Amino acid sequence: MKLTRRMTLAAFAGVLAIGTAMPAYAADLIAIITPSHDNPFFKAEAVGAEAKAKELGYEALVLVHDDDANKQSQLIDTAIGRGAKA
To answer: Is the pLDDT reported for residue 23 higher than 50?
Structure first.
């Protein structure tokens, strides 16, 4: 479990690094899109990512696609439309 958490945090840090290198489109917005929060792992992942984003001065947009591919696509479009950096 610790390895998975480290990998998740490392991936999130990478996304933040990429997001800060891109030109500003929205005011420091990061979208966090996860499967159903009925699974405690994904809920914890979203909560942790949101907390870290806020700690680093970003606004976090937490979205849940509930394992629905169409909804996931819509949420990605929403994040892009809102100008999320990552």
So the answer is: no
For 1-86, strand residue ranges (E) read 29-34, 59-64
* Domain covering 2-81, topology: Rossmann fold (3.40.50)
What is the structure's pLDDT at 2?
59
Side chain identity at residue 52, one-letter code:
K
Structure confidence at residue 13 as a pLDDT band (50, 70, 90)? low
Residues 34, 56, 85, 2, Cα dihedral to 10°: -40
The one-letter amino acid code at 58 reads Y
| Cα atoms in the Cβ-side hemisphere of radius 13 Å centred on 8 | 18
- At residue 86, the pLDDT reads 87
Neighbours of 20 (CB within 10 A): 13
